[in-house]
Amino acid sequence: MARVIAVCNQKGGVGKTTTSVNLGAYLAALGKKVLLIDFDPQANATSALLSNYEGKNVYHGILGNAYHEELIRPTQILNYQIIPSSNDLSGALIELVGLPEREYFLRKFINNIRHNYDYVLIDLPPSLSLLTVNGMVAADEILIPVQAEYYGMEGLGQLLRTVNLIKENLKHPIRITGALITLYDKRERLPRQVAKNLRRNFPYPVFDVEIPRSIHLAEAPSFSQPILIYNPSSPGALAYKRLAEEIIQLELESLPPTNFGNFNV
Ligand SMILES: Nc1ncnc2c1ncn2[C@@H]1O[C@H](COP(=O)(O)OP(=O)(O)OP(=O)(O)O)[C@@H](O)[C@H]1O
Ligand SMILES: [Mg+2]
Fold first, then answer.
1. Cα 220 to ligand 2 centroid, rounded to whole Å
2. From the DSSP assignment, how many helices (H) and strands (E) are in the chain?
3. Would you say residue 262 has pLDDT above 90?
4. What is the atom index within ligand 1 of the atom nearest the CA of 11?
5. What pLDDT shows up at residue 154?
6. Residue nearest atom 9 in ligand 1 by C-alpha distance
7. 182 domain residue, yes or no
8. Does residue 262 sit within a domain?
9. Domain of 42: which CATH number?
10. Whole-prediction pTM
11. Please, is 225 exposed, middle or buried when counting C-beta atoms within 10 Å of its C-beta (0-12, 13-18, 19+)?
């Protein structure tokens, strides 16, 4: 049965999509069967892996207007598939709001296919909207990319409180697998301080690997290629490979229990 991991941070531009796309690629390269669900109306993960995709997408899936098989697309990497998104998904926010069990649409959708995979990754939008709640409710684990910059840790307390509310009110067990330091430039003092601060104060694990700021990671999506294909020897590629190894390693260890205390920075 798959581990379902939502990649989540309501702050924009912190590396959620870059992480989802490239973590998925390396998990597949390391022998896992992986499905990436693009659950952001911006559809950045879709364009990062598929060029010019048009057609039914996750929006149709969660509303029961498409079969899974119609939506699942292969990528250039063996055993790595994607369910695309599109701007249609922004309409779902309005359509779902009046429906019963509106938090569970993505979960129900995933439950029918998760047995086919080792990992299901969900790329979430920069908000704490109903889409994000659907993503969290669908997931077993949350991975939080944190940008190593001055405002990077702002909002993390609110994010953890949201996870806590979901856990308590929707009776949904969910774990914070870890925070991931992204867009890291170790030559600069400020990012080093932010990373140190996060490692010291974040009440959950922080992945050992830090994702460096790397032009190759920024360029790869414009070729609709994961970094594993675009430039596998670049520092960003090596970092995402290490992240995949850390995540796989957690399969072997029992994850620490999630303790939702207050977190203020
Ligand atoms: N490690 C990195 N090095 C260089 N550029 C990066 C890196 N990670 C992400 N980027 C670039 O930064 C921008 C934001 O990254 P990304 O789209 O992954 O963030 P996001 O959190 O998904 O954004 P959003 O909140 O809009 O969904 C993109 O242009 C991406 O190519
Ligand atoms: Mg994104």
1. 14
2. 12, 8
3. no
4. 25
5. 87
6. 15
7. yes
8. no
9. 3.40.50.300
10. 0.95
11. buried
